[in-house]
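Dear support,

We are seeing what looks like truncated structure output for some complexes. This example has two components. We would appreciate it if you could run it in full and send us the complete token output so we can diff it against ours.
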Amino acid sequence: MKNLKYTGMVIFLIGLAIFTTTPFLGNVKMTEAVMLETLDEQKLGNLEVQLREQLLDKEFSSAFAFSRAFIGIYEAKNEELKANKEWGQVMHTKSASVALDLSRASNNGIVTQNKWLFFFLTFGLGIIGALFYIIVDLKLKGPPGIKNDGIYHDTATNRGWIGVLTAVWLVTFYIVLYFHPYIMTDAISLTDPVKGLFKEGAMASQWFLYGLLYCTSMLVMGVRMYIKYRHNKYQIVRTTSVLFFQVIFAFLLVEILPLFGLPGRDLKNAMPLDYTFLYKYNIQELLDAGQFGMFLIIWGFVLSIIVVPTLVYFYGKRWYCSWVCGCGGLAETLGDPYRQLSNKKLWAWKLERWLVHGVLVFAAILTVFVGIHTFTSLGGVNDGEGVSTIMGISAFDVRDWYGFMVGAVFAGVIGTGFYPLFGNRTWCRFGCPLAAYMGLVQRFKSRFRITTNGGQCISCGNCSTYCEQGIDVRAYAQKGQNIIRSSCVGCGVCSAVCPRGVLKLENGPEAGRFGNEGPIVLGNDGFQLNQ
Amino acid sequence: MDKIVIIGNGISGVTAARHIRKNSDSEILIISAETEHFFSRTALMYVYMGHMRFEDIKPYEDWFWEKNRIDLKFDRVEDIKTDTKQLVMKSGGSINYDKLILAVGSKPNKFGWPGQDLDGVQGLYSFQDLESIEANSKNAKRAVIVGGGLIGVELAEMMLSRGIAVTFLVRESKFWGNVLPDQEGKLISRHIQKHHVDLRFNTELDEIIADENGRAKAIKTKDGEIIECQIVGLTAGVSPNVAFIKNTNIEVERGIKVNEFFETNIKDVYAIGDCAQFDQGVNGRRNIEQVWYTGRIMGETIAQTVTGNRLAYNPGPWFNSAKFFDIEYQTYGWVFAEKLEGEADFYWEHPKGEICIHVVWDEVTGLFKGLNVFGVRMRHDLFDKWLRDGAGVDEVMANLSTANFDPEFYSHYEKAIVAQFNAETGRNVELKAKKWWRNLIRN
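Here is the complete output from our reference environment:
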């Protein structure tokens, strides 16, 4: 059995190694046809001479090498144009994304020639190996029950060297994905055949690769959840729910809707987590998409303003965070092995409140700026340019700052990249504006609470340790108080790991919601309990 | 201003200190020779098994004590001079007190077995035990555990988590026989065996055999069987840790003798928790209680007394809980191993044999007396109310759905339970639909 587990790990690592090596397997040569087809008129006008001199028909041994050369030319030209104040000629498209388009179209390396093969060697081996590794736990770890043995002895899950290596890999992956996608040209191309299943001959984008990887990781690690918590129906149902919403809503529908000429949107992605909703291009696209587009616009508002707070009132924010959300879904599956690494100290809670509400304020400002710009421009103000500057600040700048700091760095690089170091909910706890918004409702106006079972707590600390949101659950439980915290995502693991049956997630009347007001814990008749 | 000194930083002593601070501005000092800071004794096993780090089982962050002006001293008390109200410290010097609370806990029982003090032989109670079991586990292949109770199962689970095989010697013919009725004992025994523990009933330890270095290398049972092992776990209960008090003026029997106000024979000296021995058990309980919850209740109560509100120990209805490998156990009220005269009982077990419920009531009046549950969670608040109000067994059975505390989506068995209850007892209980549990408390 153990050997089977190790074999699985080896197969997984081979898949991972091949995936990681793909950036070095390219062979990029840009032909004239590709150049003319890929670049628009402005770019061609700016760059054609240099490109013909320096890049055309030259062979590069990787997409990276080609792209660096291209970006050098592109940026230099832009600098020159700016220096000469030829503002009309300055190119606004990100050089990295133009580089990605060119290298995608010009790549003729071993991966691009054998896409299915490499898809199998990376995704295929990764999935097979991981499943082997996971499924043998059915036997290895004994009868169903909480099996957290050795978590703090394992360097993968106790911030040891494997954890650090994993974090380095993940952070690198996110930096490449968000800021230097051309490096993963070959990795993107190996998902072309899968993209082709939706639309013949379609080329995958970096976001398709990411989405596919995201779903795959969730599904495989979802299997792990099913095995680990097979004795706990709440966990089974919840895991099924996050997998469903990720695969159907966040992935398949987004791919399938465009096949019918409809805008592919993730219907469950609520503002302000979905911060691009009010962007002009988005609203414009939805307006252009007829009735369904109109429905999406209305749904977007209804979801955030009515559905979200209403459901939080009845069920707590868990209905979204640990049942529906994509970020939450990844955290609850891929991130589950790291949940104990969240910081439980009081200072971390203080930091959390400043940060997460800070982001919420930032998101509100973004919404105001972008909303005014979008609706004034759609309303024809300033010849359709709209009002883009308020109090001397440009809506485009606010967009860029938010997109960079919150959308990419916080949610991606830190949020997921640092799973093995800070735990699996860093983004959800410290950064997510939707979580902050729902948290306010949950804390002040909701039927949700985690009930503490009278005086049964033995202060062991399992609940606090395995709280991914870093809530010191024990601090409440040992006083007989219920746990009502804005950050609680209702994953139910505190209740699962409790050895004495002390904690239960439940929805009920708001009266008496906070439980024992103390100071005496149930079981002592020498005192009056505050009922 | 009073200076209150507490010896022992377990749950009893620390609860006392916290509540004294809530009620007064007295100077508070907690002395412990075990660890610098309070930790949850019941969670030591999880540190060994790698579920948590030691720092995770400390219920309060280290700044808590200074913030609440609770002084800590990491030192051992060698002697107590009650006439001058002084403690003699191991590190030299002495500490004065105005009021002294002894919360010194227990130590594992040893019954004079030959070899009981060899290396590799230990109990599981203190932080030092955790350190030594860690050391003893290196290169260990098999452990023999002596004593069929809660700590024994915990120790077995710990050993198995490191791949160390376990032989478990139980003197009685069933598991935890002095506490659990037959059916529950069997259920737990099966579960322990399912985890590949070599469980031996009616087997007693005769002696522990040493190797040439004075380490345990095997044990011999009373039947003469030799079992090779590198660790011997002695888990046959605990007894009050009172050796150093025996030389003082404070009256000691098995534990430190106290009345229901925790007052010893010496004025201003009190004892609480595992080490306290009541003249008479309070509210029908044993006269020495060695449970987390009773320690906490005693700490809450003594804090009132030493801050001027003299209160007797008055615990509510009995409750307890434990976990045996994967099966949780809760109990409310009294379910004795042997039914008392005049008691009737009802036992239901799930066909898979890992979930059960055992209810006891008065045969004549129908008064509900107690409940054991395994593999099901029940609401403490409701049972506490039912027991205090003298509810009948029919009321309890009818409201089982509301009393259930299992996580959402769990399978419910109340229908089957009540059906079997009616069939076996001839009573006629109608199971009520689940309602919001607080509605039952208010009525």
